[in-house]
Amino acid sequence: MKNPLFRLLSAVALAAGLSACATAPTPAPLTETLGRAPQLSTFNRLVAEAGLSEQLRAAGPLTVFAPSDEAFKAVPAKTLEALVADKAQLKAVLSYHIVAAKLPAAEVRNSNQKTLQGGTIALARAGDFVTVDEAMVQQADINATNGVAHVLDRVLMPSKK
Fold first, then answer.
1. Which residues does 126 contact at the CB level (< 8 Å), separation at least 6?
2. For the whole model, what pTM was predicted?
């Protein structure tokens, strides 16, 4: 190890490896993984209010189609207020965004999937684009120990029976 260039390159490689290890998030359940996503603060708050946090910590596998904060801003204020006031309805709407299977974006096929709410969502994929009902996946494959999440550009509303 008398070659100074070799020592310098070894030190750089070691430092890069250590910094990569330091910044890689520790695998965690969906609740904690989604809690680290700043664009999902509204979704995370509403999941807690609806009492779904434990379900998103469960063994899974689960796929969560999580609306972004921007998606929630597009929901009329009165509609959102009514949802927050009615915990059962809030739980139903949020459960409509969860499927009891792990569906990474690359494995999405044009199909219908049953949600935890009991309704059915339509999944479609064209090239790199994935849609869920009328919503577009903005960010795919947020991996967790018990499943995967995808960020949506819209809030999905189950049909009224």
1. none
2. 0.82
Q: H or E segment at 132? A: strand 129-132
Burial of 118 (0-12, 13-18, 19+ CB in 10 A): exposed
Looking at domain 28-152, its CATH superfamily turns out to be: FAS1 domain (2.30.180.10)
d(CA 22, CA 124): 37
The predicted-structure confidence for 18-69, as pLDDT tens digits, reads as follows 434 444 566 799 999 999 999 999 999 999 999 999 999 988 899 999 999 9
User: Whole-angstrom Cα distance, residue 11 to residue 102?
Assistant: 40
Given phi > 0 = left and psi -120 to 50 = alpha, else beta, which region is 118? left
CB 56 within 8 Å of CB 30: yes
Phi, psi of 27 (to 5 degrees): -55, 135
Around Cβ 125, how many Cβ atoms within 10 Å?
Answer: 16
Domain ranges of the chain: 28-152
Return phi, psi of residue 94, to 5°. -70, -35
